[in-house]
Amino acid sequence: MACHIRHESRPQPYDADKRAILRAHHLFGKLTPQQVDRLSDCIITKSVKSGTNIFAKGDRGTSLFAIGAGTVKISVPSVKGRDAVFNVLGKGAIFGEIALLDGHPRTADATAITDCELCVVERQDFLPVVREEPEIALRLIEILCSRLRRTTEQAEEVMFFDLPSRLAKALLRLLEADIGSMLEHKISITQKNLSKMIGMSRESVNKQLRIWEDKKWVRLERNAVVILAIDLVAAIAEDGAYDA
What we know:
- By secondary structure, the chain is α+β, with helices and mostly antiparallel strands.
- It has 2 domains: 15-154, Jelly Rolls (Sandwich), CATH 2.60.120.10; 162-239, Winged helix-like DNA-binding domain superfamily/Winged helix DNA-binding domain (Arc Repressor Mutant, subunit A), CATH 1.10.10.10.
- The chain is 43% helix and 21% strand.
- The protein has 9 helices and 11 strands.
- It has helices at residues 18-24, 33-42, 97-102, 123-132, 134-160, 163-177, 191-198, 202-214, 230-239, and strands at 44-48, 53-55, 63-69, 72-77, 83-89, 94-95, 109-112, 116-122, 186-188, 218-221, 224-227.
- The strands form 3 sheets. The chain has a 4-stranded antiparallel β-sheet. Strands 2-7-4-5 form a 4-stranded antiparallel β-sheet.
- The relative contact order is 0.13.
């Protein structure tokens, strides 16, 4: 497999971790050491500042991204200037896989919420590995199915669940998606983006979070929510068993 793009504008602090990122990732974990070496040689590391538009809906999709550090928002803009937030991804997550696989334009915007370190794999470098290793194709199918299920669940939540349940489900989903947040149960997200994810007003989300903060279930920090009572929040997400 030839590498088509290997250059980088400047040395990046995550260069030495390329192989570790690939070996640890769900998608790439079954690669042989030789395949990891070949693919890691093709990875471009990229630093982006908070607020940077990584790609926009309709852009040509030629690459897949893995997050080495930071948080990325996946959203779709509306004609009225608002955006619907589909997901907020943290360290260890991948995005951009749909356009990478079918070669069609991007289906959503990707924006850096925080300063990010990204690993970029070009389509022309990645597809030969998929052809060589069917396990990668199966794992991609798993990821796509998981995201389809999540989209269906989010639509169901907006239609049938009350605000506390929607909010609890969204927080737990975000926590599970960010491997860097699991130990301290801290979710880096603004209340504005959180409200867009669950289809409620920012004021309503803030009010509910304040209620939970008074009960010591969560702690609110600047652009972040820390879950203190994970079992109680999970109970609300499951069936609203507690008075929210």
